[in-house]
Amino acid sequence: MLVLGVVVLIPFIWMISSSFKIQADLFKYPIDWIPKNPIFSNYEEVWGGKYKFALFYWNSAKITFITVVGSIITSSLAGFAFAKLNFKGRDFIFLMYLATMIIPAQVLLVPRFILFDRVGLVNTHLAVILPGIFTVFGTFLMRQFFSTIPNELLEAAKVDGAGFWRVYWQICLPLTKPAIVTLLILTFTWHWNEYENPLIFLRSSDLFTLPIGLSSFVDEYGANYSLIMAASVSALLPLIIVVAIFQRFFVEGIASSGLKG
């Protein structure tokens, strides 16, 4: 596993190293993994030049944050309902909802575009945010975790006078921290790197997200890979920070919710 881990990390190490080199030293062999004369002008040009990298960064951060918060709220509410509330057709509705995962996302792009165009959402960030707030996988993940909470705990809370909302908010939700963190990491990673939906629904360059911005960066600067590497490292940092902070809860959430039920 250590050897495989090193093999996986090599491209990332090369990317970070290349971001501090001039173009002439980029493909020199043998590779200088630690640049002898590191430069920071690549980052200065990426962030402070004519390129709208800071704007793309803000757009991605805004869309990802709203989508993550929204998906946690909707998934936790739906997961609690499917796991702990008894209503007619509950299991059948959940099965049908889960079955929508087999539908390729690309199949829904055309009808979604037509719908959003008619309601005036095309070329707005809402066209990217709204589909991401409702996630079948998030509902399944939260439902599996809620199912592990003993019903006796909920019944004791009801005896003390707690209603469904209070049971959800004060009893169940605090116990689902690992599952929430798992959903947070997965949703954050997916929407931070999302390329397809922003490419289709966003037309104005001022609305572009990082993946679209990096694509246009390549087109604009051509073969200047030093700048491309600096931009890629900057885009990767939030993912590394989020995973590093929540990694322990992520593993716990996968172990306790993804493999049970």
Strand content: under 5%
CATH fold field value of the largest domain:
MetI-like fold
CATH H level, superfamily name of the largest domain: MetI-like
Q: Structural class per helix/strand content?
A: mainly alpha
Number of strands: 0
The coarse silhouette is globular
Order of helices and strands: HHHHHHHHHHHHH
Major sheet description:
none
In the predicted model, the low-confidence regions spanning at least 5 consecutive residues are 257-261
**Total domains, how many?**
2
Number of helices: 13
CATH class assignment of the largest domain: Mainly Alpha
Architecture (CATH level 2) name of the largest domain: Orthogonal Bundle
Instruction: Supply Rg.
Output: 22 Å
Helix share of residues?
over 70%
First-last Cα distance: 29 Å
On the 0 to 100 scale, the average pLDDT is: 84
Keywords:
single chain; 261 residues; mainly alpha; MetI-like fold; 2 domains; 13 helices; 70% helix; globular; disordered C terminus; transmembrane
